[in-house]
Fold this sequence. Notes:
Elements: H1 22-26, E1 42-48, E2 54-60, H2 62-65, E3 70-74, E4 107-108, E5 114-120, H3 123-132, E6 134-139, H4 146-149, H5 172-178, E7 181-189, E8 192-193, E9 201-206, E10 212-216, H6 221-232, E11 239-242, H7 258-270, E12 274-277, E13 288-289, E14 292-300, E15 306-318, H8 329-334, E16 339-349, H9 362-380, H10 384-390, E17 395-396, E18 401-402, H11 408-419, E19 432-433, E20 436-448, E21 454-461, E22 466-469, H12 479-491, E23 498-501, H13 518-541, E24 558-561, E25 564-567, E26 574-576, H14 577-583, E27 588-595, H15 599-607, E28 611-623, E29 628-639, H16 646-666, E30 671-672, E31 677-678, E32 696-701, H17 725-737, E33 743-744, H18 748-753
Helix pairs in contact: 9-17, 12-13, 13-14, 16-17
Bound molecules: dioxothiomolybdenum(VI) ion.
Amino acid sequence: MPDTRHEPIRVGIGTPLNRVDGEAKVTGQAQYAAEYPAAGLLHGVIVSGRIARGRITGIDETAARSVPGVVEVLTHRNRPHTPWLDRNYKDELSIPGDPFRPLESEEIQFSGQPVALVLAETFEAARFAASLIDVSYEAAPHNIDFEASLAEKFLPSKKRNSYHEPKNHGDADAAFDKAELRHEARYHLAVEHHNPMEMHATTVDWHGDGTLTVYDKNQGSQGVQSYLCNIFGFSKKELRVVNAYVGGAFGSGLRPQYQVYLAVMAAKHMQRSVRVVMTRQQMFTHAHRPEAVYTVKLGAEPTGKLTAILGDATTSTSRFEDNMEDVVIWGMINYDSPNMKGEYSIAPRDTYTSADMRAPGAATGMTIFEIAMDELAYKAGVDPLEFRMINYSDIDAMYRTPFTSKALREAYREGAAAFGWDRRSPEPRSMREGRELIGWGMATGLWNAEFVETSARARLTADGRLEVASATSDIGTGTYTVLALVAADTLGLRPERITVRIGDSDLPHSQVEGGSRAAASAGAAVQLACQAVGAKLLAAAAKVEGKPLGDARSLEDVTLTDGYMILRSDPSKAVSFADAMAASGLDVIEEEATAKPGLGDRISQMTKSRNVHSAVFAEVRVDEDLGQVRVTRIVNAVAAGRIINPKTARSQILGGVVMGMGMALHEETMGDPILGRWMNHNLAEYHIPVNADVHDIEVIFVDEPDPEVTPLGAKGVGEIGIISTAAAIANAIFHATGQRHRNLPITIDRLIAT
Ligand code: MOS
């Protein structure tokens, strides 16, 4: 019988479980891409180009090659042959255009472009030699200034499958023109760089038998594996990609970065193991959140009821690829208005291609829209929260489809109550303490609830241990822990008895982890695989002498607890997993399963909208003389369906809120238009919030049962925390000071200058 000396274990979905990989991480046992040992390792250091556009006219490698320990310098002149067709360079998330090919030719497309890779026996020798490479260039005219690039903006082709075209309704221009209450403004968001703690890094372990293991920092091992195999001619049996631990990524690891290309190219060329790690400065030479301008026009009746929503946004991309985001659709989805119109374009400039960064499109578009909504609320003389309620839409107002669930009302209510919103004095500059002005602002968050086909394997051994495995990634989000909880829930095992293996291209199929999809998708796959193991166990139990479980055929007939199957109809009857397996002569039960949207789900995906919602409330204290803003309180109330692990989910929201604080107040990559490069490419000058910037953050998950949205009823929470946090802060700054800032981040100089 189950060991009743212990608390009955019901650790499962909904249990706030500590990270199962926490101990491995704090003790240094968790290995990151740059930490794997490999015999005969060569160290590669990347030389970054110094001009934004033009061509290389000469490279003097003499001094570099004479440094003791240097074994090779790869440049466009001597690099190994690679295929010429663009399609060989497409990755899982490729976008229209020509993917960047490191060391391809003498052509320079952006500042910081890799122009050489120095390979040496030691890192120090490689780094020193890299500093001696002398590259000469012939510069061509370039532009990295966003405002100037707007002259070249264009309507992108809609080939990117994750891009959602705005759907217009009514006559928004006419409705705006005749609206009694109007707001129109142009907003700007600076470039941001992802800056995860772990820099992009690759260790290629060259096994010497024609196979290689590529330890790489990315968000999807199998996508990177396909990419590398297509370029370098390996089969998937020969080339394995491992990303077991990822030190944050925020989207910078969605697409393969150039260090993995260079590392594999060098390893193949040298037939040796190679490691390439980007410097922090090189982290500013690739993916970044696009710069954005967004003009919002809102028309309303005197009561505040919206009659027209118009949005026109442009975001930045490179000259070689068309990166697109969903910027203008969010306000249109969220608010009820008979007339709406969205326009979107992209503007090319001479930088690397912009990329997805935590909640791409919504972190920009919903944030800006929510500042515009705040502006109109003041014009209408309506409380900002009340203003949202007046314009609340129970259905998706743009697609005109019902939601699988939308507990945003509850999020507003519970968030407002926790924050004490009803004690707010409506007038700007009306709350003060000492020399500090106090402001309270709020905003609405909206993001997608994704579910994508994912496979998982579950393996139960006679010692009562379970391993679950899938190629999905844990980019710091808690995937290990979430999958352990789902497995624990399904088979009634303690998490200590469960091992989660992920982040390895050899494991069952998974798409790249992005869009807050892993918990719902891999979680569903693990649940299916564990259910299949459970079914096998139950069948095995029928061979136990005396058949204690009688004719129990379905997992519904038994409770699985702590390694026992207990008959529901008579809890005195139970069979242990071990006895069932022994009776059937099984050492192992192993099952693989794939969770994917079924036919019903596919129809429902066309007829229903799937979204996660939030209500963010912010308190700021502003010292007007110093221009200093402190975000003293944030309440973020999130409606995200069923929360698998309240603890790691809360951490996701906390992290998103802190990133939203960065978007509101700190993060801005500044370009030097003359040199054509990012100037503040280090953490001393690119400011992200630090502990001293972070005060009280309260996270609330409102009850939102939604069995339809995904098999587990869960909606992802990796991104919703950042969305509109910056708007709530900007709106609070207006409430504190009467200053309306339409240019994010609201840095000290901007506050003082206004
Ligand atoms: Mo996220 S920007 O989809 O990693």
